[in-house]
């Protein structure tokens, strides 16, 4: 397919497609475009963001079915074929002849690349090995000094997943400050966030005739751009003294303070009222998965705060109030909070 035609057709499903590299667009045109059109006929929109439990289960089903069809022994061999050099040629031949790409993405309205990465995360036995020991941290520093950001090579040497070693290195690569944020650090964070948002908007405006006139304007930015999908590794590098998760948490705190004009929204009686309203509204929504929750709507229950703030409060609520929450589905957690904890909170209030 012609590249310009591919961009135009994909743009209907992926609005930011023109910011993606040409090679990636060509792959998406081959792997995704026909699927996206089929989903459109079914009235199903292409999804991004966190995978739902239903989607995770579909990935597991697709992988298990592909293994049974081909006789490949394990999901690790299927998804991490390079770990098995002696069988690599045979496995790749089976994947090609049995249409691995199509089978893996079956029933999941997302770009194939995201489905593939998610499958690798689910099935990587190196992805769930607990905390890093001091010895592992020293090894990680040593291997990075030798191989740079070749996370694939480093992950193989450490028997950890690519994502795990990359994220851990971001935490330990320098003298990270774990104390209170200084004024200078906070200013650096705010400046870094502004820079990445401005850069993103300028890219979006690149084809607009008026973009040159607006390049130095004061920006009116919607909440979505302030709260979601910020490149935290890039922001971490700009701040220098904090790792990405600290930057994300601090930014949520800053936004919350700005949006609420410094009011204490989650203390004492207000905290009880918030918990009660949050549980009631979640129960009314009847979500099967966290992706089905309108977090923006819930943010107004607490008092016009970032959705990440609400998600953090809900996470704390389920961890502290729901026994064995890890083994419960999202809907079961909501039901437990509604049936067991809501009466208790109302009585306290």
From TrEMBL:
GO terms for cellular component: nucleolus. Residues 124-161 form the HTH myb-type domain. Residues 124-172, 173-255 form the Myb-like domain. GO terms for molecular function: chromatin binding. InterPro entries: Homeodomain-like_sf, Myb_dom, SANT/Myb, TTF1-like. GO terms for biological process: termination of RNA polymerase I transcription. This is TTF1 factor. It comes from Pterocles burchelli. The lineage of its organism: Eukaryota, Metazoa, Chordata, Craniata, Vertebrata.
């Amino acid at each position: 397919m012609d590249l310009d035609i591919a961009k135009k057709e994909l743009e209907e499903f992926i609005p930011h497609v023109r910011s993606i590299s040409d090679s990636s667009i060509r792959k998406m045109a081959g792997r995704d475009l026909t699927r996206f059109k089929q989903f459109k006929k079914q009235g199903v929109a292409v999804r991004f963001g966190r995978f739902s439990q239903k989607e995770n289960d579909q990935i597991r089903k697709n992988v298990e079915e592909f293994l049974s069809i081909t006789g490949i022994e394990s999901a690790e061999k299927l998804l991490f074929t390079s770990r098995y050099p002696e069988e690599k040629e045979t496995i790749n031949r089976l994947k090609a002849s049995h249409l691995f790409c199509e089978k893996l993405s079956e029933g999941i309205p997302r770009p194939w690349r995201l489905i593939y990465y998610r499958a690798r995360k689910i099935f990587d036995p190196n992805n769930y090995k607990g905390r890093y020991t001091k010895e592992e941290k020293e090894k990680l520093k040593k291997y990075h000094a030798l191989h740079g950001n070749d996370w694939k090579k480093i992950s193989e040497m450490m028997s950890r997943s690519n994502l795990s070693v990359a994220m851990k290195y971001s935490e330990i690569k320098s003298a990270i400050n774990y104390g209170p944020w200084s004024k200078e650090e906070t200013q650096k964070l705010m400046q870094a966030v502004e820079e990445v948002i401005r850069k993103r908007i300028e890219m979006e405006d690149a084809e607009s005739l008026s973009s040159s006139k607006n390049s130095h304007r004061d920006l009116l930015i919607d909440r979505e751009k302030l709260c979601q999908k910020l490149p935290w590794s890039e922001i971490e590098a700009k701040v220098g003294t904090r790792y990405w998760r600290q930057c994300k948490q601090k930014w949520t705190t800053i936004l919350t303070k700005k949006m609420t004009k410094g009011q204490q929204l989650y203390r004492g009686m207000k905290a009880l009222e918030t918990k009660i309203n949050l549980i009631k509204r979640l129960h009314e929504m009847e979500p099967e998965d966290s992706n089905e929750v309108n977090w923006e709507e819930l943010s107004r229950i607490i008092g016009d705060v970032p959705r990440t703030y609400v998600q953090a409060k809900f996470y704390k609520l389920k961890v502290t109030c729901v026994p064995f929450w890890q083994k419960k589905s999202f809907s079961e957690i909501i039901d437990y909070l509604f049936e067991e904890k809501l009466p208790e909170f109302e009585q306290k209030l």
